[in-house]
Amino acid sequence: MSERRLSEVLTRRFSRVAWTALAGYAVVVILLFTTAAEMALRRSLDHSADVIQSLLGAYRDSTSGPGSVMPSALADQLVAMGGQVVITRTTTNAGGMPQVYYLSPGMPARRLEGVPESSPEQARAALVSAITERARWRYRVLHRTMGEFDLYVVASRDAYLVPLGVLMGVAALLLPLAALASARGARQAVADALQPLERVTSETRAIGPSESINRMLERVDRAHRALQSFTADASHELRTPLTHLRAQVQWASDEGRTEAETRDALVAMERELDRTTKLVEELLLIARGENRQLALAHAPFDLSAVVDEVREITEAMALDKSLVVRADPSPPVEAVGDADRTRHILLNLASNAVRYTSQGTVTFAIVRNGTEVGVSVRDTGTSIAPEHVDKIFDRFFRIDQSRSRELGGTGLGLAIARLLAELQGGRIEVDSTVGVGSTFTLWLPGVVS
User: Fold this and answer.
1) In degrees to the nearest 10, what's the CA dihedral of 339, 345, 346, 348?
2) How many CB atoms lie within 10 A of CB 319?
3) What is the DSSP letter of 88?
4) Which residues pair with 87 in a beta bridge?
5) What is the tens place of the pLDDT at every residue in 103-157?
6) How many helices (H) and strands (E) does the chain have?
7) What residue ranges of the chain have pLDDT lower than 70?
8) Distance between CA atoms of 381 and 353, rounded to whole angstroms?
9) Cα 398-401-406 angle, rounded to 5 deg
10) How far, in Å, CA of 307 to CA of 343, rounded?
11) 66-83 as b/e: b if 16+ CB within 10 A
12) Residue 356: exposed, middle, or buried by beta-carbon count in 10 A (0-12, 13-18, 19+)?
């Protein structure tokens, strides 16, 4: 119900915004058209006024009184303009009263009758009113004063009022259609945007409220305990080599140490520094991977070639042991992911197999499972107790703490291997049998043909 109301509210708001935007656009277009037309009309009036004003000088120079005849050049210009220009001349009689005369082409000036003569301004206002009659909005009048002459240039707005009416009519017809189309588009856009929310809501409703809260609390508690454990383990793992380094420095700095003893202490310190550097690098790798800041390729690669390369490195690691490293025959197989990260995973699995297998075999095999391809690393060494199988991928977890440290392990190898597998869309499975050995299988997406 709430999702439906949200959809309706968003649709109404989008529709209102669309209506407002379209109506505003239509008004802006009409105003721009009207403004452009008025500016063109004003330029036309100014041009006509400039021409007439330049010819009024000839009339003034050749007149000796208000009844004089208009010069032919000015008369021809006025006749050509078709009665769009009115020229008046205001004089003062013997009694000091203003008198307004109308100038027409080829005729002596005639005094205007019925025009108030209290002031030239009143006469001009009455004349403008008479020119435009009652439909003032249809005409535009430009008035200029040139000494005793008043020039009125009149132009009709009919030339652009008709197109303006057509434009307004088209806008009135198209605006509802455009608004209807935008409302439908807004409804569809809102539905598409809310679809994931509706799916999450329906799935959440399928889970009981108490169950959902319990799961959330369990995840929060598990994450909190994991963070506490990781912090404690990391502090312990870093404290151990630092304590060892401090002891070596103090021992080597005592008086009476021979050169050989000092050299041995430096070698031990270098070994601890290397181990600490490796630990820090692996911690940074895990942090970057969990924050999705680790760059991984996602492309087909030759998995068989990666397995052959890891097998050769494993043979070198097992030279001082009674181990046979082999690979089951398999045709070339391609996987989708990152070849370098896959090599890193397999080397971690292989080094563990060699580390915990004193004699026997370490076998690589390529397997298939539907759309997935896998690489199994099988050893005949120390098996993993059932109660430890679910913990071996935890950070810093070691089945035998002292032996693992002697063998140079940091307790992060399997955690990194699982993280790199998951970042490639894969996983790692474990199968361990007491007295037989352990098999770790890396599964990755296969190439779909």
Assistant:
1) 150
2) 9
3) E
4) 103, 151
5) 666 555 556 665 555 556 666 666 666 665 545 667 777 888 777 777 778 777 7
6) 11, 12
7) 1-7, 57-83, 93-96, 98, 102-137, 179, 182-183, 185-187, 189-195, 197-213, 216, 219-220, 222-241, 244, 279, 282, 293, 396, 398-410, 449
8) 7
9) 115
10) 8
11) bebbbbeebbebbeeeee
12) buried
- Structural tokens at position 329: 């025959």
Which residue in this structure is represented by tokens 């008043």?
A: 150
Task: Please provide residue 306's backbone torsions phi and psi, each rounded to the nearest 5 degrees.
Answer: -65, -40
* Structural contact between residues 447 and 334, judged by C-beta atoms closer than 8 angstroms: yes
Q: Are 314 and 326 in contact (CB under 8 A)?
A: no
Identify residue 214 by its one-letter amino acid code: N
- The number of residues in the chain equals 449
The residue whose two tokens read 């535009």 is 140
Single-letter residue type at 355 = R
Q: Which of 384, 377, 371 is nearest to 428 (CA)?
A: 377
Token output for 350? 């292989």
DSSP string, 239-274: HHHHHHHHHHHHHHHSTT--HHHHHHHHHHHHHHHH
- Which residue type is seen at 391? K
Q: How far apart are CA 413 and CA 393, in angstroms?
A: 8
Residue-wise pLDDT for 28-67, tens only, equals: 888 888 888 888 888 888 887 887 777 776 665 555 555 5
Asked if residue 139 lies in contact with residue 157, where contact means CB atoms within 8 angstroms, the answer is yes
Query: What DSSP assignment string belongs to 17-68?
Result: HHHHHHHHHHHHHHHHHHHHHHHHHHHHHHHHHHHHHHHHHHHHHH-SSTTP
Q: Supply the DSSP symbol for 293.
A: -
